[in-house]
């Protein structure tokens, strides 16, 4: 094999490995001893508004705190809707149904709980929503380089070299009867400049699906 071909072959392997690695990260799963005895009682589950945070490894020169907070709110809404859409699309795969997130959010606002989810017990939230359990999620997103620079890298070297941020998802299921934590899933993932919130959630949920307690066996 000619040297040029060998170099091309090695580069192709490297790009493939980096492409795969960008979607992988550490994963942690916690399962309560009570999970199996409680989960079969669940019929309706609500997905709570996400707690989304956007941070920067190095703050941009013209960083706008208010704009960043709005971006966090928009990301939280997009992630919540993205998760619901994914679960709804695969409804036949689950042992429970999921409450429409618009109804969930409307009920939380009506009862003054929307901005106080960390100040009340999870069983109280379940009672207010009329569900058997809640899925509570936190998504953190840290930008690691300028988006403009990443676009250039993507164009020149491919999306595998266009990574701009690292993200992590923490998903927890709380029991409606006593508010206890039944299951917790944590996953890290690196994102490239082409990723949208829906794309991120699609990939995250594919990883979660292998461990999701409501998945039919």
Structural summary, described in words:
By secondary structure, the chain is an alpha/beta fold. It has one domain: 3-Layer(aba) Sandwich (Rossmann fold), CATH 3.40.50. It is 42% helix and 24% strand. The chain has 7 helices and 7 strands, in the order αβαββαβααβαββα. Strands 1, 2, 3, 4, 5, 6 and 7 form a 7-stranded mixed β-sheet that branches. A hairpin with a 5-residue loop joins strand 6 (163-175) and strand 7. The longest helix has 25 residues, at 65-89. The relative contact order is 0.20.
Overall mean pLDDT: 79
Radius of gyration: 20 Å
How much strand content do the residues show? 15-25%
Tally the helices: what do you get? Answer: 7
Text of the CATH class: Alpha Beta
Secondary-structure content class? alpha/beta
Question: What is the strand and helix layout of this fold?
Answer:
Layout: H1 3-21, E1 27-31, H2 35-39, E2 44-47, E3 51-56, H3 65-89, E4 97-98, H4 101-110, H5 122-129, E5 133-143, H6 147-157, E6 163-175, E7 181-192, H7 197-209
Parallel strand pairs: 2-4, 2-5, 3-5
Antiparallel strand pairs: 1-7, 5-6, 6-7
Helix pairs in contact: 3-7
Signal peptide: 1-21
Organism: Segetibacter aerophilus
Protein name: DUF4136 domain-containing protein
């Amino acid at each position: 094999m000619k040297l040029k071909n060998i170099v091309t072959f090695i580069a192709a392997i490297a790009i493939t490995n980096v492409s795969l690695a960008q979607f992988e990260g550490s994963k942690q799963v916690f399962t309560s001893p009570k999970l199996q005895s409680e989960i079969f009682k669940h019929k309706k589950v609500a997905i709570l508004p996400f707690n989304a945070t956007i941070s920067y490894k190095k703050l941009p020169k013209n960083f706008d705190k208010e704009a960043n907070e709005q971006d966090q709110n928009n990301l939280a809404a997009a992630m919540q809707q993205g998760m619901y859409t994914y679960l709804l699309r695969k409804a036949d795969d689950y042992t429970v149904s999921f409450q429409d997130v618009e109804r969930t959010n409307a009920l939380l606002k009506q009862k003054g709980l929307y901005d106080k989810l960390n100040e009340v017990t999870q069983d109280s939230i379940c009672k207010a929503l009329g569900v058997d359990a809640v899925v509570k999620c936190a998504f953190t997103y840290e930008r690691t380089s300028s988006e403009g620079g990443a676009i250039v890298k993507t164009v020149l070297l491919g999306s595998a070299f266009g990574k701009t941020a690292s993200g992590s998802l923490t998903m927890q299921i709380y029991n409606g009867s006593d508010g206890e934590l039944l299951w917790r899933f944590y996953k890290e993932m690196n994102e490239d400049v082409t990723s949208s919130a829906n794309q991120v959630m699609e990939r995250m949920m594919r990883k979660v699906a292998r461990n999701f307690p409501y998945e039919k066996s």
